[in-house]
Structures are given as structure tokens and as C-alpha cells.
Amino acid sequence: MRQIRYLYTIGTDALYTFLADDGWAIASHIALSALMALFPFLIVLTALAGFFGSKELADQAADLMLQIWPDQVASTLSREIHDVLTTSRGDALTVGLVLAVYFASNGVESLRVALNRAYAVIEPRRWYWLRLESIGYTLVAAVTTLAMAFLIVLGPLIIAAARRHVPLIVESNESLLNIARYGITILAMFTALVILHAWLPAGRRSFVQIIPGIIFTMLASLISGVGFGLYLARFANNYVTMYAGLASVIIALVFLYFIAAIFVFGGELNAAIIKSRLPRGVSLQAAQSLEPGEKQA
User: Fold this and answer.
1) Which Pfam families does this one have (predicted)?
2) C-alpha dihedral over 40, 41, 46, 48, to 10 degrees?
3) Which residues, in sequence order, are CB contacts of 221 under 8 Å at separation 6+?
4) What is the DSSP letter of 290?
């Protein structure tokens, strides 16, 4: 009974703080920033894939990125994404790429704003250092996505080579590759959330402190994706009727809006749990500015 009361207290505290911090408005900001950053990010992805000698990797990477999206949402953007990935750009390694990296980093900046509010911390770093950090995260994400796509491409060759030396009890490569694809995607999502919660906002948080919000974000995003997919299967025509040619963009924006709200609430949930375990008189902001050894003292 005590545990249920504790969970209820934490949940209501996180909800009230989410509303007080304008969580819905921040979620809409993240959704719009993410959608606007998606295509510049794909341009960066294509340029890097071409630099490594295989533009087809960008297609594989984009498929991997959309793997966790509902089919109805991913299919609405697939044609536009394919057009971006297959368009030749002479300026891709000059001014165009620099601008693409800058605009893609806006998505990271929106996440920083959301987490700083959720954890009730004030950002002490200079704006240009923050922007450089966001650009760094963007480039690392692009290279990592390409690396994961490369593993997926090499999957059939690796399995075929292993079959010749080690007997594998697998009926077909397809099922094993699907498991690997989903496993890599989930692992990448978990790793990205850990990096975002631990290092993106100001202050310091331990791995244990950020895990509850991460688990909530992953589970709630999965449920939201399934639910939104079922909704679109029945009512997708409503968007076409109302928004005409913009229907695909609006569908993606609504989906991102729900995911962003879940992400923001995950941060608020972590903050509520941290507050519940603080000694009397210690503020949330002060607790996150201390080293682990100082907290125990």
C-alpha cells in the first residue's frame, strides 16, 4: 500500500510540474523542431554516406530511423525522405552542409530546453558552446546511424559466413535479421536517451536517477506508436480531407508531438523521484550541482 501511495505521489507531482513547466507547449516546440531538423539531418547523412563511398547506406539508415515509427506515419514521409536521399547536391560538402548541420542541431537544442526545465536547472554555459555541443551530437548521431545501417547491410553476409563454420539452427536469415534490426534500434534509442538525460541538460545526474524516466519514455512511446497506428488505420482519411497535400506532414507532426510530450514527462518523472529522495532543505537544483560524493556526505 505504501508503494502504491508513493507511486501516486510521484506521478501526480510529475504531472503538476509538467503542466507548470508548460510541458505541452515545450512538446509542440520539440515536435516542430524535430520535423524541421529531420530533412537537414538526412542531407548530412547522405553527404557522410557519400564520403564513406556508399550513398545506399543513407537509405538503409533512414529505414532504420523509421523502424520504430508506426507504418502509417513512416509511409507518409517515405517518398519525401527518398527524394531527399537521392537528390544530388553539388554544395553538400560546402555551405549547404554547414547550414544543414546547423539546422539539424536545432532539434538537439529543443531537447536541451525541455530537460533543463524538467530538471529545474539554469544553464550556465555560453550559447556558442551549447550550439557546438549540439552540432557534435548531431554528427555523432549521423555517423552512428550509418554504422548501424552498415551492420544491417552486412547482416546477410555475416550470417552466410557463419553458417559455413558454425551450424545455426535458423530457418531463414530474414527472421534473424528482423530481430537484429529491432534489437539495434531499441539499443540505439536507449543509448540516446541515456546520453540526453545524463549530459545534455545542465547539472549532474547518475545513471540510477535517470533510468525511471527512460524506461517510461520507451514503454509509453511504444504504446503511443501502436495506438496512433491503430487510429490512423481507421481515420487517416480525416487528415487528407482536412489538410489535403499537407496531410503527411501533419500526421508526422502529431505523432512527434505525442512522443515529445512523453519525453518531457519522462524528465519530469525523474525530477519528481529525485526530489522525493532529497534531504529536507536541499533543492532539486542544488542536488544536481553536487558531485556524487558530496551528495552522500
Assistant:
1) Virul_fac_BrkB
2) 120
3) 68, 259, 262, 263
4) S
Nearest to 69 by CA among 199, 221, 283: 221
In whole angstroms, give the CA distance from residue 235 to residue 292: 50
Q: What angle do CA 32, 34, 36 make, to 5 degrees?
A: 70
- The burial class, CB within 10 Å (0-12 / 13-18 / 19+), for 70 is buried
Digit-by-digit pLDDT tens for the chain (297 residues) are 788 888 889 999 999 999 999 999 999 999 988 888 877 777 777 777 666 556 666 666 666 666 667 776 777 666 667 666 666 555 555 566 677 788 888 888 999 999 999 998 888 888 889 999 888 888 888 777 767 666 665 555 555 655 655 555 544 555 666 666 677 778 888 888 999 999 999 888 889 999 999 999 999 988 888 888 888 877 777 776 777 667 777 888 888 899 999 999 999 999 999 888 877 766 677 667 655 444 444
Q: Could you give the CA distance from residue 3 to residue 157 in angstroms, rounded to a whole number?
A: 50
pTM of the model: 0.80
Dihedral (Cα; 26, 30, 31, 36), 10-degree rounding = 140
| Interatomic CA distance for residues 273 and 283, integer angstroms | 13
Checking 89-98 for CB contacts under 8 A at 24+ apart, the result is 89/43, 89/46, 89/47, 92/43, 92/46, 92/47, 92/50, 93/47, 93/51, 96/43, 97/43, 97/44, 97/47
